[in-house]
Amino acid sequence: MHEHIKCDVTHDPQTRELKRRLENRHIQLIAISGAIGTGLFMGAGKVIALAGTSIILVYAIIGFFIYCVMRAMGEMLLSNLKYHSFSDMVADYLGNQAGYLLSWTYWLGWCVAAIADMVMVAGFFQNWYPDAPSWAPALITVGILISLNLLAVKVYGEVEFWVGLIKIVAIVALLVTCFVLVASSYTSPTGTTASLSNLVQPGAMLPHGIMGFFAGFQIAIFSFNGTELIGTTAAEAKDPERTIKKAINTIPIRIMFFYILSLIGIISVISWANVSAAQSPFVQLFMIAGLPAAAGIINFVVLTSAASSANSGIYSSARLLFGLSRGGQAPTALGYIAARGVPTNAILLTGVAICAGLLLLLFIPSVMTVFTLVSTIAAIVGLYTWSMILLAYLAYRKKSPALHDRSNFKMPGGVPLAVLTLVFIVFVTGLLALEDDTRMALYFMPVWFVFLTVCYRIRKRRTATPAHSVSTAN
After folding, report:
1. Residues 254-296: pLDDT tens digits?
2. How many domains does the chain have?
């Protein structure tokens, strides 16, 4: 059935294919790791300080539209199991140039996101060892992650499985702690009594007005980067029909559990007004509860979360480079598959790009300034990726009505909801232009797209044969 993905180690490395070695538990935890990252553990504090309790509504709204994007992606991926990732279906329905731009932009986005995560690692180590150079722990961590990705894909799956479990345990511990503190009406050293009434106290909903509410979208959107990782595991998932469906359908439950309940618990115990924008609210809560050891453990969880997110970035980016190479849109060497079934050269190039990005730490002394810049670029790439998936879905509905009719995983709401989700993405992108620190990243992206377009045109002229596309469109 899947003979196109078998790998014979005696074959030429340029003809080997990716192996289906990711099992259901790997796919589910990769999906969870994609949904729980540094944006939640670290960014939630700044969002609460800006938006107050309305942040719960912010996360719920974003989560709803992200689910719509994932259902559109899921329907298309399962309509043709020859798709290696969502970039294949974008190339199929929107053209090779669209697929080229998306793949290279998504590669950039994950490299930048990995840089943001490594900057955070550097920041934590700098807090513990102020005299140590900030770039050193970041480079060491990248080296470890590259080594893990060069092993068999199942090793990557196992790492994400166990790191995902650590994140889940941390959030469950937070929720249990919040429940105990609220049930016992615990009064913190700041004089705040833990109570659900803190959610509706005067001024809690919109403490900084409607603009504070909108600013919450700017920051919170980065928390959802990586949700689409499910779409890059398609070529290496065992029984994709079952695993991908399950991973996508449980997104609303994950958002409710990991985001909504966590935020409700934090605000109930600390009160929005006492949440520090510069500190992880998870750490702050355990400190207030008189559990400094637990706070130290959460610091460790944040570090593993950052490393996990960077690990996912390396995995995803390398697979996109592999797909580009096999499609004739990147150097042939990037299509090399080692006997272990991993795209070695693509992984190494991604690692070099991340290390190059970390040079920012040498020129910009503030870790938070670097983090804000690169995380905003990553957020913009996420918005662009989701919009391209939706545009491909609209083209799929128009060009392949028969495939849609046969689908047993149709997107709820269909075309009207896809259009509404696109409008929401445009709205959030416009919000990024309101602040100076996020506007700078918006200026960078048009330059990137012009550069990519020129590269595509040059490569197209030099290539004798047209770029490969997995065609299904009628």
Report:
1. 777 778 888 898 888 888 888 877 677 877 787 777 777 776 7
2. 1
